[in-house]
Hints:
The protein is an alpha+beta fold. The chain is built from 6 helices and 16 strands. It is globular, with a radius of gyration of 20 Å.
Amino acid sequence: xxxxxxxxxASAVLAGDALAVEIMHWERRPLExxxxxxEERIVTxxxxxxxxxxxxLANPEVLRVQSAGGVLYLKAFEAFETQRVRVQDVESGxxxxxxxxxxxxxxxxxxxxxxxxxxxxxxxxxxAAQASGGEAQQATATPVPVRLTRHAAQSLYAPQRTIxxxxxVSRVPMRLPESLSTLLPSLPVTATPLGAWRLDGWTVTAVxxxxxxxxxxxxxxxxxxxxxxxxxxxxxxxxxxRGSVEDTTTVFLVTRRGGLDRALIPLEETDKAEEGxx
Length: 278
């Protein structure tokens, strides 16, 4: 599975009172993951993924699934038998299979998924890497935009004790209006900035998206976003009609050499573009 879900074990260790981490090796066989009822379990993949749920789990009253920055946040609200879930790497298209079940008393330990073949290749090259200052290189092997997006998602939605420390990151002022009308001008969506973080010249801004249409649902496509962004990561792949439990999500927008305030297209330019296509 090309480039899928390889992560450094050191990144799974949290500062302070660290939680135990269960390591699972992806070897082309479905991974069995039992979930506790009414308690969140975190699965770290370290790749931006989309999740395909079978009909039995598509009900948000049975299972809540949130995906952000290569991390899955899974919470079962009732017990259920084993169901196969399809997880796809957004970048490469590769697929990982999870066999999820839920029962009272199941472990809530965080899970770290490692691709066995890539892990072996990394282990084989470690002596040479250490000889040339490889430890520092390994610490920064994951691209800054990925680490920054994961940190922002965890800061907003993960329990405080599970947030991975990220050296050098700082929360920064956004200098944005309360609503970003030019971000998704073609959709009836309200875009509200939530927070911004900066590291090594990169900035990630989290923006809440709310569907204002009570009759229509929308698939979320980064090509609809208007602005100069390095990357965009949606927490969910779609917005359900207004009034449903899935009518709101968050998008994480990464920019370089400045914040989101510099990356957005001015309103007048957006209007001209719409006139040109009408």
